[in-house]
Amino acid sequence: MSQVELSPAQAHDAENAHHDHPEWLAHHFDTPDQQNTSAKMGMWAFLGTEILMFGGLFCAYAIWRANHYDAFWIGHVYLSTAWGAINTVVLLISSFTMAWAVRAAQLNQRSLCVGLLALTFLGGCGFMVIKTIEYTGKFEHGLGPGIWYTAPAISKQLDAMAETAGTASHADAEAAPATEASGPAAAESANPVPGTSLPSSAAAPMGMVAPAPVAPVGHDMAAHSAHGHGEGHNYYAAHGHTTEDLVTARTFFSIYFGMTALHGLHVLVGMALILWVLLRARRGEFSAEFNTPVDLVGLYWHLVDLIWIFLFPLLYLI
Amino acid sequence: MSHSNEHAEHAAGHDHGEAHQHVVPLSLLSGILVLLLILTGLTVFTARELHFGEWNLVIAMIIACAKGTLVVLYFMHMRWEKMFNAIALITALIFVTLFISVSALDSFQYEDNINNYRAANPTRVPQAIISDAEVRAPELAAETGADHEAAPSTPAAPAKESHESGDGAAAPHAG
Amino acid sequence: MTTTQSSIDTIYGPDAEPNYLNAERGLWSWLTTLDHKRIGIMYLMGILGSFALGGFAAIMVRTEHLSSAATAAADQGTIMTPDTYNSMFTLHGAAMVFLFIIPGIPAALGNFILPVLLGAKDVAFPRLNLMSFYLWMGGAIFFVMALLMGGLDTGWTFYTPYSSGHSPFGGVVPAVFGAFVLGFSSILTAVNFLATMHTLRAPGMGWFEMPLFCWSLYATAVIQILATPVLAITLLLLIAERVLHVGIFDPALGGDPVLFQHFFWFYSHPAVYIMILPAMGVVSELIATYSHKEIFGYKFIAFSSLAIALLGFLVWGHHMFVSGQSALAGTIFSLITFTIAIPSAVKVFNWLATMYKGSIELTNGMLYGLSFIWVFSLGGLTGLPLATMVTDVHLHDTYFVVAHFHYVMVGGTVFAFLGGLHHWWPKMFGKMASRLGGFIAWVLIFGGFNLTFFPQFLMGSQGMPRRYWHYQPEFHVYHLISSIGAYIQLAGFITLAVVLLQSLIKGRKAAANPWGGTTLEWQTTSPPPHLNFDEANMPVAGNPYDYENIEHNADDDEYVRTRPQSTARSH
Amino acid sequence: MLNPTLHNSIGAVLANFGGRLVLPEAESNHASYYDGTFDFINYVTVFFFVAIIVVMVWFVWKYRRTAANDRAADVASHNTGLELAWSLPPLVIVVFMFYFGFSGYMKMTTIPANAYPIDVTGQKWKWTFTHPNGYTSGNLDVPADKPVVLNMHSNDVIHSMYIPVFRVKKDVVPGRYSKLWFIAENPTKNADAPLLEGDKLDSFVREKIAAEIVQELKQKDPESNPTASEDEINARLASMKPEKKKQYAVDHQLEVAAKNGHQLYCAEFCGQQHSVMLAKVIVHEPSWRAPKPVKGTPWQEGKKLFMINCSSCHRIDPSAPPNIYPDFSQGIMGATHTMADGSSVKVDENYLHESIVNPAAKVRQGPWGSNTLMPLLPLNPQQVNELVTFLKSPQKEPE
């Protein structure tokens, strides 16, 4: 928006051949201050829209968490706090280098600015690499969003809980008439996924902690005794009855993926923008007089950081 | 933290007709980073090691808000920005709060209604898989293991006021 | 558009004085233009195309009802299957709402006229402006794709779980994605206008020297920025729900369909004000200009726009009184809904007061302005029983609601849009449109409109549900009248199109100020030059409604200012 | 705030003043306060609309631009007193509207404890009403003068229960219960008429037999225009079993009641056949009890299931209006159908069975399009068999 005016309009170039109108100042602005103020104002308004966009997901999160705390607790156990915390640190540092890059641009420190932007870009790369590791682990364990949620891991976990709490699940299953009717046909289609095992710290990627059947504070262990056992969807098909928590653990992972994927998308967009200003900075387009693009990209990057600051405790530290 | 040197830098900018910009001193930026890292450690520590139940969320959110405020004020220069930009941000936050709180308020009001239904109709998950099938063609049904024939039913089940039993009217089907 | 360019040359001649239309030549110069006026014109063409598309669907819907009514058998003699009917009303709603009404006044008229009204050379971010136009095009293309992929039948509201798991139509995902893209177009336009109004006002133009159209666009921009992102995430979640079955809105997976309605209406109710606020701004300009009198209660009108914009966010739940929303939420929403009636009423009273002791000229623009008062009053007042919790129970989802929002939106937005189009047409193209032809079109459109929608109030309150392919025989007569009205409207719109096209080719050359307007756009030539104002003739801002020293020059049919306008409004 | 009695009396006065132009008949307890509120708002609306338009037209005429009036005579641009004067009174009026609406809504949502419960299932595209004793019907039978509560739930998408003459509407949302209550005021005409007997029954049965014969003849030769001979009718009537005749009497009663019943709609768009998701409300005498469900023959049970689950899309009565879905009025056994993939299938018992339990397995070619599947019905195996038994001979029970 504050790029050099490229319009083919010969007419307006002629009209605007002011000696005091710098090349980077768009034709419709009178002063650099006006241009910079406009740009920042537009950016902040846009950041407001970003906040509201994430607001929708935060709303879904808040309502589900309030209504199904147990399910969220079960789900979050499968997220790696360590990776989450490392990612937070990576983003914070890249945010710092970005802020420093803006300062460098303001002070005409061109090579420092380029270096800092490169570091920020690397920070973004690091974040995405870690996210990829986490995502891969989730998908491997059938903990993807929506149709990719087959949840053998969670069923096993609940199974373990059920065993410690007694064998109520079987009694329960027999008690439900619907189960008997659907049993044989569904059991036939049951297709246990071989190779998916109970998550343990050895088998799982870093931080896929094997949750010992530890109940969260105020968590009623017996409530989980009826979860039964089974594999993924077929668990439901085979048992006919289910509990709130299993279904909502599925929703937890949907919300988790929704939030982190939208955030990840913003990281990618931010990285592309950083690359863009990095190249322009290398060409020496910015100066103490004109550095609005660096400033704006910085604002965007900080917003990405800001959102992660909230996502981290909400998703990883329930 | 001292602001003296950035004022000098700032003044230098002005001579060239520079837009009104604020240069944040490096020491301030680094200080903020350190604070942010400490707060991150704190949030992990409180969540993992201390058990205050519901209050854990409150503590985590207070820390997150503190971190966010630091980022906005210093990294994003909000301290030195025009009033409009702050208003834009605050308005956005107010409307997010409004949106979440009113939706949540309503949701909590009718949640009992949903729970009663779920207690009385526990077979809703297969139902979902079949409804996928309706839209996404039969192969998806096979893939997800949904089995239409398995649907048991007593469609004419008497209406029980309490709906305590599971064999109620809503047997799985694709609607 | 090459032909457009050559016709521009034919119309204005190679030696016409330079204006934005002949400043650059060729298709490429249009597609890459950063001139807000050209972007406005491109928007205008796009939204008129969408209007035609939506109008076609509307005529199909009415023809279907006409055919059932004519054969007096709801089950026979219909011209389409229920699937076709369902996709027609959905197409009508979606195209009209997302492609036409929401961008209509802000993006087409606003884009063209806002910077000129402010005395600026362009909007703050011309590139962003072009980008938002292309986003709009992209969204429109997705809608066309949705049609090609089998259409959609969810209604424009996309209610879950029907849209997320049940509708067998292939066009749901592309259409939803199209609406998502259009949302971004809308957001970028709003960001642009906001920054423009903050930083690019002409020297001497304080906030209260802005024309009221600018105030209404400001309020609109606030809504667009605060509400549209929520729609964006809602639509993304809907796509995720349909494709991945994430289970947030689908009750079969533990989701909550009423939550979707909260999400949807958090945007879509404010969106109603995105549609109506700019229209109110246009009408303020029309009434003042053609009464040749300073607008009455400037600040009340300006602040009522902002009040409507903010209160508009607190009333979304009145769409959900019978939806399973709790009585508590319903009560809150109903109460706040009533308060929003007041700023709307204030505007109507102020317009009437502006006409009092004015010198009222019944131009075609003014006719649309007055029609707006008629239909908006009726539309607004029939909103009262819908905001009242108990009466809404019976009226919800009936033709009463259909009639109500058509009175507000067609009546409101379309009439103001057409009024604004007549008002600024000379400025846009430098040509005067035929007054008689325009009058005939107005008679047909206004008459046809009332004939179409008034019977719908009656049948709705008698219990005719909306979105019904079949209906009970007792409603035949209403549907018959309604469909006849629709055809009269169609004739009116065709007449109008002919009149406007004819004016481009054969129209009399427009003077700089043909209507006696006092806002800044009338200080420049018609059509304006590339940067809106000549260097020699930079705009002078002052009281935007100072009609005292404007004299009519009968020889040129032009108004000229005899003394400089007062520097500030009179209070 | 107004006390409820006063509110009611205002409502009653307003409701009776000048008649009711645009509302349907009032048939439930909710109608009185509903109509009062509606009329109050109506009069306010008409008053303001007329006032605005009269003033507008008058101004346009009086202050039209002429040579003498070529500039505004008055340049007052604001008057705060006036602004407040026209802002505050409307505010007071709308507060009243809110109060009427609120108090009415509270009445509409406060369900009496002793209400007669009816379980309502909404499903694409039919309503099922189940009474506490297990009596199930596709129409809503309610006793007059007693509070009735509908416990509603949906098996698929959002539907909306709408009975205009009762002034009630409530969305039926999947995954939860929603409730609606009312007291129906006037019994439907002939809803509880005594069963036909003697000559009247005979003449009704004769009509039915005549239609049956005509149809049979037409099935043999579609081109012909047959009439049923008196002898044939008499013969069949004579050989008819008494239980069968009794069944005709019951059918007749239901037919008459449904014809006179109030219209019930689905008001929330629910897909292709949204506009035929209709039912009738039949109001019975206050002493009415839901009939005990009696188990009939498999064919009769199948017919019941068909009427509840299938009849909104598939026609069996040749005099009923046709629609786009497969038509069973001429019977289907033995027919050869073309499938969506071009193959053809001969209709037999297995095919019928499969089509019910797995609608996606073989989809018939037709105007409904290849992507519209018949919904899966909530039937148990026994019910499926009963339905197949019925479908094998939908016109008449095999002897």
How are the SSEs ordered, and which strands pair?
The complex is a heterotetramer of chains A (318), B (175), C (571) and D (399).
Chain B: H1 4-15, H2 26-49, H3 54-75, H4 83-120, H5 124-144
Chain C: H1 2-12, H2 27-31, H3 36-70, H4 82-118, H5 126-148, H6 162-166, H7 172-199, H8 212-244, H9 257-291, H10 298-311, H11 327-355, H12 364-381, H13 383-387, H14 389-395, H15 399-429, H16 435-461, H17 476-506, E1 550-553, E2 558-561
Antiparallel strand pairs in C: 1-2
Helix pairs in contact in C: 3-4, 3-5, 3-17, 4-5, 4-7, 4-8, 4-9, 4-15, 5-7, 7-8, 8-9, 8-10, 9-11, 9-12, 9-15, 10-11, 12-15, 12-16, 15-16, 16-17
Chain D: H1 4-16, H2 29-62, H3 80-109, E1 116-123, E2 126-130, E3 136-137, E4 140-143, E5 147-154, E6 159-163, E7 168-172, E8 178-183, H4 198-220, H5 230-239, H6 242-260, E9 262-266, E10 279-284, H7 298-309, E11 336-338, E12 344-346, H8 349-357, H9 381-392
Parallel strand pairs in D: 1-5, 4-10
Antiparallel strand pairs in D: 1-2, 2-3, 5-8, 6-7, 6-9, 9-10, 11-12
Describe the model.
The complex is a heterotetramer of chains A (318), B (175), C (571) and D (399). With 175 residues, chain B is mostly helical. Chain B has five helices and no strands. In chain B, helix 2 packs antiparallel against helix 3. Chain C is globular. Chain D starts with a helix and ends in a 7-residue tail after the last helix. The N terminus of chain D is likely disordered. With 399 residues, chain D is an alpha+beta fold. Chains in contact: A-B, A-C, B-C, B-D, C-D. At the C-D interface, helix 4, helix 9, helix 10, helix 11 and helix 12 of C face helix 2, helix 3, strand 7 and strand 9 of D.
